[in-house]
Amino acid sequence: MAMYINQELCISCYACEQECPTKAIKFSNRKFEIDLRLCVECEGFYEEQQCVAICPIDGCILKLEELQLVFWKIYRN
Predict the structure, then answer these.
(1) Torsion of CA 50, 39, 15, 58, to 10 degrees
(2) How many domains does the chain have?
(3) First to last CA, the chain
(4) Can you give the residue range of the structural domain that contains 20?
(5) Are the C-beta atoms of 2 and 65 separated by less than 8 Å?
(6) Torsion angle (degrees, nearest 10) of CA 34, 36, 41, 46
(7) CATH code where residue 10 lies
(8) Measured distance CA(14)–CA(30) in Å, rounded
(9) Chain segment 9-63, per-residue pLDDT in tens
(10) What local confidence, expressed as pLDDT, does residue 7 receive?
(11) Number of other CB atoms surrounding residue 26 within 10 Å
(12) What is the largest CA-CA distance in the chain?
């Protein structure tokens, strides 16, 4: 899977962009986005996702599978 940046929580601090080993995080159209084709969740580089570890906002960067679970819970009710 890949990681996802919640645009509503992101404060555009640029910390995650510098930490990404595959350069999957880009600033575009005044927001940060993660290229799903490039993101490997830091597998083969680090034991934990560096973008999540460096992000000062809890819950701003999620695994796509976690995001899917959140949406499923919201729309289920």
Answers:
(1) -70
(2) 1
(3) 26
(4) 3-76
(5) no
(6) -70
(7) 3.30.70.20
(8) 12
(9) 999 999 999 999 999 999 998 999 999 999 999 999 999 999 999 999 999 999 8
(10) 92
(11) 14
(12) 39
